[in-house]
Specification:
Arc Repressor Mutant, subunit A; 2 domains; three-stranded antiparallel β-sheet; transcription regulation; Metal_resp_trans_reg; DNA-binding; HTH_ArsR_DNA-bd_dom
């Protein structure tokens, strides 16, 4: 369902890009359940601490201990944010002995993060 919505968004973008602007863009059909899941995703991403955790994972897999050191946060706080990100399917992990290594779940999560970063960087400060 989410893939269909994403495809519709891409098709809508193509229509906007190639047909001369917003007047000719058909929009996107978005079911209520999909809109709720998207809103939940944006709520998770609305936390600056979670975005900092994700930023640490852009370069690849990182153990929790290293995240704690890099972010200057407590281990329970880092673990909480990782648990929320994992629940939303944004990060995944592997265990190696007593160490747990986290990474962004897949390429589209990286793309989402980088697009948000690019948008925030060029749109200036909202506050």
């Amino acid at each position: 369902m989410l893939a269909t919505a994403a495809r519709s968004v891409r098709e809508g973008e193509d229509a906007h890009r190639f047909a001369g602007g917003p007047a000719s863009t058909p929009g996107v059909a978005l079911e209520a359940a999909t809109a709720r899941r998207m809103a939940d995703l944006f709520k998770v991403l609305a936390d600056p601490a979670r975005l900092r955790v994700m930023a640490c994972l852009v370069g690849g897999e990182v153990c929790v201990h290293r995240l704690v050191e890099t972010l200057g946060m407590s281990q329970p706080a880092v673990s909480h944010h990782l648990r929320v990100l994992r629940f939303m399917g944004l990060v995944s992990y592997r265990r190696e002995g007593r160490h747990v290594f986290y990474r962004l779940d897949d390429r589209h999560v990286l793309d989402l993060f980088m697009q948000a970063l690019s948008h925030a960087s060029h749109s200036g400060s909202a506050t």
